[in-house]
Amino acid sequence: MSLPTGFVSPDAADAPRALHLVDAGALDAWCDRQGAATARWVRSQGWDASPGSVLLLPGADGGADGAALGVGEGLDPFSYAHAPMALPPGDWRLADDGGLAAEARAALLVGWGLGSYRFDRYKQAPRAPARLVAEPDAESADLVTACCRVRDLVNTPTEHMGPDQLEDFARALAEAHGAGFESIAGDALVARNFPAIHAVGRASHRAPRLLQLTWGDAAAPHLVLVGKGVCFDTGGLNIKPGEGMRNMKKDMGGAAHALALAGLVMARKLPVRLTLLVPAVENAIGPDAFRPGEVIATRKGLSVEIDNTDAEGRVVLGDALTYAGELEPELVIDFATLTGAARIALGPDLPALYSNDDAVAGAWLQAGDAQRDPLWRMPLWRPYLRYLTSRIADLANAGSRMAGSVTAALYLERFVPPGTAWAHLDVYSWNDNDRPGRPAGGEAQALRAAWAMLKARYG
Fold first, then answer.
1. Measured between alpha carbons, how far is 268 from 142 in angstroms, rounded to an integer?
2. Which of 30, 59, 64 is nearest to 47 (CA)?
3. Pick the catalytic residue: 192, 240, 377, 435?
4. pLDDT digit string (tens) for 388-404?
5. 48, 232, 342, 363: which has the fewest Cβ within 10 Å?
6. Catalytic annotation on 314?
7. Is the pTM of this model over 0.90?
8. Domains of the chain, with CATH numbers?
């Protein structure tokens, strides 16, 4: 197994220095164990082992002989994620193996991997991360790979991550795991009864498409993952202002999450029958762009009046969710960068969870707490369906400015068959600024929690 960035195997390490993990509450006891000289050095520096801090420890030759890392909550991967960029480059080994229990060690490995991430496709990283002398267990390595996969996909500009490149990635993922793959593109969407996906994407020079990956034992419980793949969102004819359009390469963040989670399911060989569906489009402006006031057809047979062309994600997801329901799965999960309203309500760090199944929602929330990968449940308050009323169609794709995240989820629920367990996660998929382990740009949110929930449910 190749090691993720930021790690080196013991037999390949180059003069590793000792790294001490120190909790602020245990600083005095740690100093006593290190001896009088180290204790004097720590106190002379005023170091208090606060979370996110680092103190280099001097050696006899005047160099840094080791370092102490201030850590917070031991089961939170981000308690350790500052280390790769805060420590000088080179190889580091845990002193006394860190004294970590298995769960804390797993958190360290994931946090170190995430803290080592830099998107360097177009610009070389200013420095290499410090390397930890460790060989992560396969699950920790797969979790790091999945989270970094989301980051890479979201960070890649639309010129290199349009519907066709997203198809290339999904196809390669399928081939890597021996999965089946199909792409329904362009006018074939109309012929195969995916008219809403076609309507949203038809104005782009890059054809809209529905990507489908299938994997696993046909007799196993059927899990369907759906990801919104709007590779760029101009807003359509309801064009976004410049500030709102600036980062719309990230509007395929839902697809990135679904692809990464599918990769985890297959890599870890979860005993499920997996179907992945990604409606991949570009919401462009052109002579054939769908227009406000149009009534479009959907796979479900519902007619939809377009109130706002910038509420396009729910439109393409409607066709995908209808198809998912036709497969009669045990569970459907969709990920989507769906609404700014969710960010207004919960901010950038908390994805909004909606579900028609209390057990599914509760399990995902519990996994989020355990994995320190948070999400927050929001209500499917069905009286708000009145905000999606159309006078000329079965429903409108938008309407009132009230409860925008709730009404978007209610729109999606109309395309989920009654009795089908379903959860929808409205993700931001983005870090607005740099934080330790969370560089500005694309981000995986509640992905580790989703995996933990699925592993508990099926594994």
1. 8
2. 30
3. 240
4. 999 999 999 998 889 99
5. 48
6. yes
7. yes
8. 7-136 (3.40.220.10), 143-458 (3.40.630.10)
